[in-house]
Design a protein that fits this description.
It is a single chain. Helix 1 runs parallel beside helix 9, helix 9 packs antiparallel against helix 10 and helix 10 crosses helix 12. Strands 1, 2, 7, 8, 9, 10, 19 and 20 form an eight-stranded mixed beta sheet that branches. Strands 4, 5, 12, 13, 14, 15, 16 and 17 form an eight-stranded mixed beta sheet that branches. Strands 11-18-21 form a three-stranded antiparallel beta sheet, with no helix packed on it. The protein contains 17 helices and 26 strands. Helices cover about 40% and strands about 25% of the residues. It is α+β, with helices and mostly antiparallel strands and about 525 residues long.
């Protein structure tokens, strides 16, 4: 595989990134750190106002990986331990906490997006990306079906080997190419504003996002630094648009707050400090996330209903895996096509995970009876419950709170059985005498797998309704031998044979393989009767 620095240097840039939000800045940082010549164009000057202030702990892992978590932690943003909701089977408030499922990052932050995004973009610049603020991209250039560059607002053309579209909800490339499709499940509208001197929940929930379901939909309240709170209402798109035309955005938001008693109590006496804004039709996805010479990241690719504060997390995760794909495409053409497929599977799995979680939670809310909730209960029953559940819990390590919040709703009668079907299996310490077999529908494949900064040739276990599980060459060899054995051979014997064929001491290989079998049995990838 050729290194980046062995490639000829074309005119222009290796990579042009469109947009400096969390997706674009994360990708630009990683690409610059990999040694690529990166040019990022951002239409606005930072800091700039932006909604979506509530982060998840999983986001912090990506920030740590790119090297800017300390800068975010020093900023003094509000610490968020979890969420408090009036939602589910009744209207009483309940809370879930990150420390229950995330020991490494037991909290997240409520951030001023203007400053948060500015920190990430500044880190891209410090990492070696050429960042141009106040310069927008109005079009992309094609040679056949391959994207070859961009056209700036001033008419200047910039060539590049790869274009990263992180243009936000404007979705420049997806809209231009007819890839953007709106989501019929979430035909919602959001209206939001900022208030000073709101009351907060009692400790330890005073930094939590507060979500209250009410007749017209649901409201959020996010406590931000400086005594300011972000407050927004999510309502039916058509009903909300008609009411806003009649009364205006500010009065409409005030009416929604007044209709939700607990939120109204927290806002009572507070002062609005900014114009209220409305956003329509904001749940969508592109039919493809990558193509010849381009990749879509963040809101330019997809956006899910904001119920679980997943926007920034999807953006930085996409920046991480998208940068790995770009590095691979530019340095290892032989692996580029498989890397694109794996990138798309990883990204779409994340999107579908949060999409199904939100859909199930909408369908399971019984705390309010109204047109809004009844319509979404009908929608929530269109997909077979088994498929919906598997989609919702697959890959759940991304956030870690899914089963907790789903358990609060009124879900399918066989939900408990479904949960048991995917819960890890208890495995005895001694597995050497077991004769396992590969679970039905699974196989070991050779494919592109995500490495530290790029995709690499490797192995994964693949099957329907499962996220690909990357495995080491040694474990891949073990699983293939188990597959050939069809449940007739003991693990200890297989391990000894592998040690001989690989010419390594048995005492060195056996503990590794036994532990691998134990984990694969726990995750139901292997099955054994005795």
């Amino acid at each position: 595989m050729a290194s980046i620095h062995q490639r000829p240097s074309p005119d222009g840039a290796d990579v042009v990134v469109i947009g400096g939000g969390p997706a674009g800045s994360t990708a630009a940082t990683l690409l610059a750190q990999a040694g690529l010549r990166v040019v990022l164009f951002e239409r606005e000057h930072f800091p700039r106002a932006h909604v979506g202030e509530s982060l998840l702990p999983a986001t912090l892992a990506v920030l740590e990986n790119i090297g800017c978590l300390d800068a975010v932690a020093r900023e003094g943003f509000t610490i968020k331990h979890g969420a408090t909701m009036c939602w589910g089977r009744d209207g009483e408030p309940w809370s879930w906490y990150f420390h229950e499922t995330n020991k490494r990052f037991p909290h997240a932050y409520q951030v001023w997006r203007g400053r948060f995004d500015q920190i990430l973009l500044g880190h891209s610049r410090a990492s070696g990306a050429k960042v141009s603020e106040g310069i927008g991209v109005k079009d992309v250039l094609f040679d056949g079906d391959r994207v070859t560059g961009v056209v700036l607002d001033n008419g200047e053309q910039v060539a590049a080997d790869m274009i990263v579209d992180a243009s936000g909800q404007g979705s420049l490339l997806a809209r231009r190419s007819g890839l953007k499709t709106w989501d019929p499940l979430f035909r919602n509208l959001a209206v939001y504003g900022y208030f000073r001197d709101c009351r907060h929940l009692d400790p330890p929930d005073d930094g939590n996002i507060f979500i209250e379901s009410y007749a017209n939909g649901w409201l959020w309240k996010i406590p931000l630094p400086g005594g300011v709170s972000s407050i927004g209402a999510v309502v039916d798109r058509d009903v909300g648009a008609k009411a806003i035309r009649r009364s205006g955005v500010r009065d409409f938001l005030n009416d929604q707050i007044a209709a939700a008693p607990r939120t109204a109590g927290l806002v009572d006496g507070a002062t609005a400090i900014a114009a209220a804004k409305a956003v329509r039709d904001w749940s969508y996805s592109a039919s493809a996330f990558s193509g010849p010479g381009w990749v879509l990241l963040g809101d330019a690719a997809c956006f899910v209903d904001p119920l679980f504060s997943t926007g920034v997390h999807l953006a930085v995760t996409a920046g991480h895996i998208g940068a790995a794909y770009v590095v691979t495409a530019l340095t290892d053409p032989a692996l580029a096509e498989e890397a694109a497929t794996t990138f798309e599977r990883l990204y779409r799995t994340q999107y579908e995970h949060f999409h199904e979680l939100a859909r199930l939670f909408y369908a399971g809310n019984r705390s309010v009876d109204s047109y809004f909730w009844e319509a979404r209960r009908i929608t929530g029953e269109q997909r077979p419950p088994r498929e919906a559940f598997v989609r919702a819990v697959s890959g759940q390590a991304a956030a870690g709170y899914e089963r907790s919040v789903l358990s609060r709703g009124e879900l399918p009668d066989d939900f408990g059985a479904m949960l048991a079907a995917v819960r890890p299996v208890a495995v005895a310490d001694d597995v050497g005498g077991l004769k396992p077999s590969l679970a039905p529908g699974l196989e070991v494949i050779s494919t592109a797998v995500l490495g530290d900064s790029r995709f690499e040739r490797g192995h994964a276990v693949r099957g329907a309704n499962r996220v690909d599980l990357p495995v080491s060459p040694l474990v891949a060899l073990l699983v293939r031998e188990i597959e050939r054995g069809k449940g007739r051979r003991k693990v200890s014997g297989l391990a000894r044979d592998i040690a001989v064929t690989q010419d390594v001491p048995t005492e060195r290989v056996l503990p590794l393989l036994l532990e691998s079998v134990r984990l694969l049995l726990s995750d139901r990838i292997l099955i054994a009767d005795h």
